[in-house]
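sry for the spam today, last one i promise. struct tokens for design, 70 residues
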């Protein structure tokens, strides 16, 4: 009974995670950090940029790993 669920065509989590990470990273870097800079909130701006670039880096790394291994 479970063999039908374990084989066949599946959609992996990575297929959803890669575009989500890239888009949210771009939004954080481009818009969120700019808003904090405008309001002169230095700590929040740095954190937003760090998290944005982390998302972009993870998205790009997952894309490369997906194309190599999957």
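last one done:
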């Amino acid at each position: 009974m479970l063999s039908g669920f374990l084989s066949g065509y599946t959609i992996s989590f990575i297929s959803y995670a890669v575009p989500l990470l890239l888009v949210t990273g771009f939004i954080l870097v481009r818009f969120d950090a700019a808003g904090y800079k405008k309001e002169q909130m230095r700590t929040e701006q740095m954190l937003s940029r760090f998290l944005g670039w982390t998302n972009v880096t993870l998205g790009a790394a997952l894309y490369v790993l997906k194309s190599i291994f999957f």
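The first helix runs from residue 3 to 6. ok im logging off now
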